[in-house]
Each structure stands twice: as structure tokens, then as C-alpha cells.
Amino acid sequence: MNASSGNMMAAKLKEEGRHFVALSFASGPETARSLHDQVALAIGQIRSIVKGDARFDDGYIFVGFSLGGLIARAVVEEMNDHKVRRLVSLAAVGNGAFFGPQPEDQRALPTFMSYIAPQIFAGTGFDATKYEPADYNGKYQYDHEMFSRTHPEHQKKFSQFNVSRSPVTSDVLTYNTFLSKFNNLTRASTDEEKQDQQRRRLNYLKLEEAHYLGSPEDGTIAPWQTAVLGHYSALDSVEDISTKFESLTVVDVKDTVEYQQDTYGLKSLDARGGLFLYVVPNVPHLKWPFDGEVYDKHVYPILG
């Protein structure tokens, strides 16, 4: 996706005389680069946009779609001087991605393998073209996780490996440097690390509201519940991805470690009435930014 994804929203808001700026820090193939880099680029562009513009002095709404939704949350946590009042996350891989056994995932996976995988795996050394539908029930997922384990350097290069959330909890903590950081899951062993985690949490809690929207009929992200901050249940070992694949179920956000332990502020935001989760039926992935009816019914009311 690129900055043009916001064209429809921009046109509708400008009709009302409201100011809208689409970020363009990473478009097209650039979205495949490390999310660590993209977060830094986004922060730099936001600062350049709001600097000296009085329209942003009292704060602003930050909307992120798909991968951009996860980036937007990370920006909020990392940017000490942000003035985001309302975070709106549309069909985002908000709590990582994993193609599990639920029917929605299995329907989405062939499309992912045919159209998205060739782009996001380009240059990584992972050959997604060798997998057939018979491999989608654990073999592909196991191979992907093993590849991630043996190529930790890809965390600094490719967004796909930043987004991938293994159901093996220890793998998330050990091999995913992005999700473990911005979900504040890493065990802090120094005062500096503890202060950094607290800083990110406090930055998230500067939000007045956070809105997360997703649809069971998304057809692209998996599990679709990641859009509302759910993720797959835990397995004990990477071998279990193959042997116990069908046992996986989706954990609701309220039952996740992130919420229960309030690692980055979700539970606190919810307690003060600022966390909003929307499960909207029959909205395919690309309808969120491009369908006027979806915007009018589900997005515009949040923008106020």
C-alpha cells in the first residue's frame, strides 16, 4: 500500500474543511523493509509535518491501515513528543500474523501465497513458491518459523519477519525483536530497559482513545482477530506447529498477556473508557480504505 490509500478519506474530510495529511515514508516495495526503520521514518515525517503548523497544536487523529496500523501504534509508543489524541487502526496486523487452522485463515492463505508472498519474501531467501495447499496445515508455518530462527538478521531488514507471531511464546520473545519490544514483553534486566518500557507505556497512555477495527471476512490478514489484538494460543515447541497445528485457537485480547499484565497500557486505557474494539461483518481487507459506504458507516463516526 502507499499514500494513495488515504485518497478517499482525504477527499471526504477536505469536503468538510478538515486538514488531512497522508504519510509517504514507505510506499510500494518499501513496505517490505524492517518495521524498526519504518517507525523511525514515520516519526521523522510526522515531526516535519506538525512543526510550525498551528492546526496540530491541540493534537491530531492518527489512522493506520493494515501494516500501517501496527506501525501507528509503535509510533505512538516510541514518539515522546506525539500529540495523538485518537488512534484508529483499520484491519491491522495489530498483534502479529500467523496463518492458523481457523477456516478464515485457510481461505486467505492461498491468496497470500499467490499474490503477497512473492513480494514480501523477495530477497529473503525463503522460497514460498514450493508450497501447495496440502502444506498449509502446519508444514509451511513450521518451515517459516524455522527459517526465522536461523535468520535473526532478517529482523533488521524485512517487515514480514517483524510481523510474524509464532504461537511458541519463547520464540516471540527470542526471535521477534519488534513485537516483543512494542508489546513490552521482553524481560527488562537493566534500569535503562525498564525505563524504556515505562516510557513506551506512558506514551501509549497519552492517547485519549484507541479504536481497533477488523472483520471476519477480511480475507488477507491472519488471524483476522489480530485486527482487534487477538492472537493464537500458545504451543510448547516449534515442533508442535506441525504436530499440534489443529489444536490452535484464537485468544481474545482481554485474555492476552499484554492486556492482563497491562504491558503497554491496554488495560489501563480500557479502564478509563478509552479502548474500543469493533468486529464488523462482511468487510474485505481493501474495502476499509477504498469503499465509501464502509467509511461512512464505520470509520467516519470515529473521526468525529
TrEMBL record:
Keyword Manganese: no
Keyword Cell membrane: no
Pfam families the record matches: Palm_thioest
GO CC annotations on file: lysosome
Family matches, as InterPro entries: AB_hydrolase_fold
GO molecular function terms listed in the Swiss-Prot or TrEMBL record: thiolester hydrolase activity
Keywords: Hydrolase
Name of protein: DUF676 domain-containing protein
